[in-house]
Amino acid sequence: MFFKDFKTFKTEINGRPFVAEVGKMAQLAGGSVLARYGETEVLCTATMAAKPREGVDFFPLSVDFEEKLYSVGRIPGSFQRREGKASEKATLASRVIDRPIRPLFPKDMRNDVSVVATVMSVDPDCSPEITAMLGVSIAISISEIPWDGPISGVSVGLCNGELVINPTAEQRAISDLQLTVASTSDLVAMIEAGANEVPNDQMYDAIMFGHAENQRIVEFIKGIRDEVGKEKIDFPSNDPDPEMYEAIKEFAIEDVRAALDTDDKRVRDERLKPVYAAVHEKFDEIYPDQEFMIEDCLYKLQKYVVRRWLLDDNKRVDGRGINEIRPLNAEVDLLSRVHGSGMFTRGQTQVLTVATLGPISDSQLLDGIDSETSKRYMHHYNFPSYSVGETKPSRGPGRREIGHGALAERALLPVIPSVEEFPYCIRLVSEVLSSNGSTSQGSVCGSTLALMAAGVPIKAPVAGISCGLITEGDRFMTMVDIQGLEDFFGDMDFKVAGTKKGITAIQMDLKVHGLTPAIIREALDKTYTARCYILDEIMLPVIAEPRAELSKYAPKMLTTKISPDKIGDVIGKQGKVIQKICAECECKVDVEEDGSVFISAIDLDNAKRALAIIETIAKDPEPGSFYKGVVTRIMDFGAFVEIAPGKEGLVHISRLDVKRVGKVEDVVAVGDEVIVKVTEIDDQGRLNLSRRDALIELEGMTPENDISEEQRPPRRPRREGGHDRNRGPRRDNRK
What we know:
- The protein contains 15 helices and 32 strands.
- By secondary structure, the chain is α+β, with helices and mostly antiparallel strands.
- Helix content is about 30%, strand content about 30%.
- β23 (about 590) and β24 form a beta hairpin.
- It is elongated, with a radius of gyration of 34 Å.
């Protein structure tokens, strides 16, 4: 056989085959596997640099989830017709894979590690993200890279009250839960969830359900590692010398304690500056060329102080109780001309969210490997450097900003009204004005305020809060509303958003190998209590429900449904009809393939006028109906009135007014708007209209009885040559 080291390993996940092919592709990578789940196929590789990267004080890991549009039989829609920058969904998939594997690498390793998952084929029933997570776990496990894995990941759905592992596309469409759970052999390593207000107990059961399946898959991956895995290599440790750390600890611990003991981040930073200066002044000479190690010792010393306070003294840096939330404030209507705005402040974390409403055509177009091609609700999150007192230039959203925006979007999505209930495109932008912990959950609260202020009829208000963790052996402690320092030096950032009824989103970041069921249960309970407090005591007193009316600056939206056969009539040849409607009514009109029509205009009367025109075009006029039309032509025998683009009828001179009319020009002129009644539709589909009847029936005017016999509308005998005696050329011969 050409590939002498080629081996396949097989198992099943929810009745579908999972196959790992090793030794055939990408053999120069440290570890590689082609992971096949159903007909989804992802090439996963893991490679480590031979030498540590100099001048860094962190582990340089990169994880890339690469979407190839050939995997779904599509050519990219870009000008160059090739894949470019990673889509937001690809970025989010990279983060989901990164979070469970990162804590399992040695913290003192400085060799670059690159993990790449290339999606080559997609079966809609078998998630490429889950396939990639399993493939990455196998690739790292069989490589020479030091790692405390493997991990496994599955998705969990809730379909008709039943929990399902790795739901199919059909099941995902009806599922009330989109949960991803990653696990080691005994601990839960990562949780990511979106849910339709799922209660705590049901969410906990779903997490444990996924965790149980993961433990079986972990054993399968261990078998692959044991059979074909390489020996793990040694690496130079970058931990500081224990003697250096103890010397710095003895010298500076009291000063560090005094500096950290404040609820103001700015004060803390100022207090630490002289401590750092004093430590460097004393130890730079003792340990020359080890500035990074001295900085690392100071970081470890701060971490030691904060963790000891929490575990031994139940003391938090800012003096709060373990389950106490920082001071809170909520406001709406901070900006004058926007459609809706809300600001949420929690301690020194402050987020301003702005809501903008637009026509459905403003929906975002998506060019990815799944079936979703557009979305009408978007949430964007911006984290400028000034929010943390820094001066970095803005380079656009990074992975963190994309991830936090997606989390807030997911948290609000279950309460966003359907397009039938609220026919608008909705964009939320969360501007982080100040950051000292859990800005993503601040943006959830600010978004609820902005949506209700904008008049979006959300189904229920949503709030979010985070829960932290400190562990030591079998001991653990959780605390609500962690600030930045507790996030940096703690072991967990467990973010939960939801309504009072249930959870809408979860994202869990860990620095330890995983969580026990007891920790997960406690975190869910504490965050529920906290978010109910935020809703009842802070947010709802400011704005209790969505406003009944939209901002005067927001477009007014009307909708209707027409027969698909009439779409061509509404659009017109080369779009002339719809363009005329938009120009005359100062509006925007979007027509969907199923006949749904969305009309948006700043002025509601303009939108109503456009709606009336479209319905007139799409529905054949009936005798007895009234229309507002425009005089387009004048003849001796009457005036032609256009009641809608492409629909024109004759008002005979005898039907122009309640009194006798000598000349048509005495009553109407071209361009006049008139109300007319449809009196007859002849056998050729031509309209006979009456202004006289409209004046009598709608305005109560009294007719004069002096209409001569010769002015009464005659029947229309046709003449040879296609002309009517009283009317001129037939419609099909007129321009």
